[in-house]
Amino acid sequence: MPNKSLDFFIFDQKQSMSLDWEMRFNIILGIARGILYLHQDTRLRIIHRDLKTSNILLDHKMNPKISDFGLARIVGDRQTEAITSKVAGTYGYISSEYAIDGIFSIKSDVFSFGVVLLEIISGKRNTGFFKSKQAMSLLGYAWGLWTDNVLMDLMDETLQDTCIADQFVKCLNIGLLCVQSNPSDRPTMSIVIKMLDGETVNLPTPKRPAFVIGRDQSSSTSSNKPESINEVTNSLEAR
């Protein structure tokens, strides 16, 4: 793709200035529609399992294209989840139920989408994010701002002149809804698109994110299950 991948833009201080709010919102909406196509509109349901900013390619018009289906799984027409004994994915983007129990589903992709959305509007990575002792991941930081009702503090500084406040707050709300701990609490992608594309004013109130990534000196994958979902810190690299 002529414009490389999404992470090339949003995590670079200079390149991020070329992505104004309208472009970022359109990218978010385009990614959501792409995931919905995989989950609902293909002949066989596809669960991507490795959705992340580096797997979102941008064409010459900055339209997003979901790429890298090396970990994708095709499930039955009516099947919405499956289980695997070997967890494969990327640290910071996989859901807690997948990391802990190997259960992946369309709601796992929803979780990953939520992380990507929050990264797009903040310009910050979820992994390696150490803002303070209270929030050592982007999800934890965003949740803290939400509970403190200082939502605009999450905004990428390069968006100050172009951001539409109502849309930004809606995106933050939706992002946090997508990364909730219980998969059944997360919206489906069809509902996400309705919330993004519609005029809905009153969105559901999100619950605490699935887990907060802490400082972890180990980069190896562990088969041991953590005592709680707040303790999931192991790196799970895509193979």
From TrEMBL:
Catalysed reactions, as listed in the record: L-seryl-[protein] + ATP = O-phospho-L-seryl-[protein] + ADP + H(+); L-threonyl-[protein] + ATP = O-phospho-L-threonyl-[protein] + ADP + H(+)
Listed EC numbers: 2.7.11.1
Enzyme class: transferase
Region (Disordered): 212-239
Residue ranges occupied by any Protein kinase domain in the UniProt entry: 1-211
Alphabetized GO MF terms: ATP binding; protein serine/threonine kinase activity
Stretches with biased composition (Polar residues): 216-239
Annotated keywords: Disulfide bond, Glycoprotein, Kinase, Nucleotide-binding, Serine/threonine-protein kinase, Signal, Transferase
This protein's name: non-specific serine/threonine protein kinase
